[in-house]
Amino acid sequence: MATNALYQSIELLSQEKGIDPGIVVGAVEEAIALATRKYYKTQENMRGELNKETGEITAYIYKTVVADEDEIEDPVNQITLAEANELAPGVEVGSEIRMYRDTSPLGRIAAQLAKQIIFQKVREAERDTVFQEYAHREKEVLNATVKRLEGQDVIYDLGKAEARCPKREQSRLEQFSIGERVRVVLLKVDRAAKGPQVIVSRAAPELVQNLFQSEVPEIYDNTVVIRAIAREAGERTKIAVQSRDKDVDPVGACVGMKGMRVQSIIRELRGEKIDIIEFSEEITTFAEKALQPAKVSRVSISDLTEKQLEVIVDDTQLSLAIGKKGQNVRLAAKLLGWKIDIKSEEEKRQEVEQQMQALAGGPTTPIEQVNELGEAIIQKLVAAGITTVEALADMTPEQLEEIPGIGEKTLEKISVAVRHYFGHFEEGEEPREPAVDEEARASAAADTENKSEGESETLTPRAAEGTAEAELENAADVLQEAESLRAAEAETDELEASDELHEALAEEQAEELRETAEELAVENVSPADEEESEDEGGA
Description:
By secondary structure, this protein is an alpha/beta fold. The protein is built from 20 helices and 15 strands. It has helices spanning about 1-15, 20-40, 80-85, 105-135, 205-215, 215-220, 250-255, 260-270, 285-290, 320, 325-335, 345-360, 375-385, 390-395, 395-400, 410-425, 435-450, 460-490, 495-525, 525-539, and strands at about 45-50, 55-65, 80, 95-100, 140-150, 155, 160-165, 180-190, 200, 225-230, 235-245, 275-280, 295-305, 310-315, 340-345. Strand 5 and strand 6 form a beta hairpin. It folds into 5 domains: about 1-125, N Utilization Substance Protein A, Chain:P, domain 4; about 135-205, CATH 2.40.50.140; about 280-360, GMP Synthetase, Chain A, domain 3 (2-Layer Sandwich), CATH 3.30.300; about 365-425, DNA polymerase, domain 1 (Orthogonal Bundle); about 435-535.
């Protein structure tokens, strides 16, 4: 009776664990054989045998029959034909001969060893069964019951196996009680795990997709298709949907009447926010919608091969587009599958200005070329990192006053020196000296010609005197301008050959102007003036 009860127990265990009874029987037979061999302290091959009808367990040693001693390779597990015929007449070469051992004296230690082996084999068989059951069902949504909590992990009962949900796969908004029924996503089956080898998740995007399929009939019958999902569990989910029927609004179908459909999903996810976006094949349009609720000014593709977008938003919309801790733009990038570089209008304007300055700026001028500054001021500016005239000109008086050693007087001196520098040398301008000299030469030639025609003789002495004074003033102005140009040119270093030629020409023309002015002064003196001067001299 007891033996029959043993086999009944094996069948019950097999049903409970969901494994084949033959696996349990095999484990029992192996355990008995191992325990018997250990008891008899032998290395001979041994097997156990369970009689299913009577429940009797036996153990025996088996040896292979060989023709003669010359063919024996393993004396422990092989026997000659002659020896075998003595034990069991009629055996043939290649067959096995059994020698049964008594299992009754095994004792408690052997029974404990057999028990451990049986449990180990049953556990291995159970894990194999679980693997075969769930290995091909990854990303599938399963109904589960919360069984227990192990530290930060939640253990679920799937019916045929236990599943583990690690902390990283949980939503921060969710807390479950024992016995609560929930839906989970099967991530993988880990055969190497010590505990439950089925890993499930409540943070996977597939959970949201399954919930929408359950709540939205249009998604279930493929009238509306979910094209992409980006999720940060417990925070926000963005889902892109597209309608295959032009008469069906995909976003409206997912939201439902008064938001009933999406609210049901939000309740299932314990209050997680959900953004439903209409999918677009045009990536720039899709990006604008993906960044909702922020309003986007424009979107452009900055790098097609690297899949990178540049998004420009209004200054007031920048923080909304980026989202809390960058969440909105991060989810949008994940939804699109593109990298997003988001900028405000002001940032973009500054970037364009810098690019324009880089294109049109040309070579910079060392600050040492402004001789009016003096060595002491130049050293202070260079120490502050200002090494070019252009950088000095871009600085405000407040910024200059922050430099150590720069006071009001020094600031005024710097301002004057920079104005003088840029007043004489404007970028792209040629020196104006040749043009001035041409005008002076033309004016002097015209005056000389007029004198040769005798026009000065028709003037009254006072008129002639006024004309002479005016011409002298004009000549002086021209001479002063030529001197200023020549002085300015002297301040520039490393003049090229053309600049040296201009300087020589300017000096020659200035000399001609000086001689012309003196001739005009002599010729325009009236006879009356000469007499007065002689009388004064005589007096």
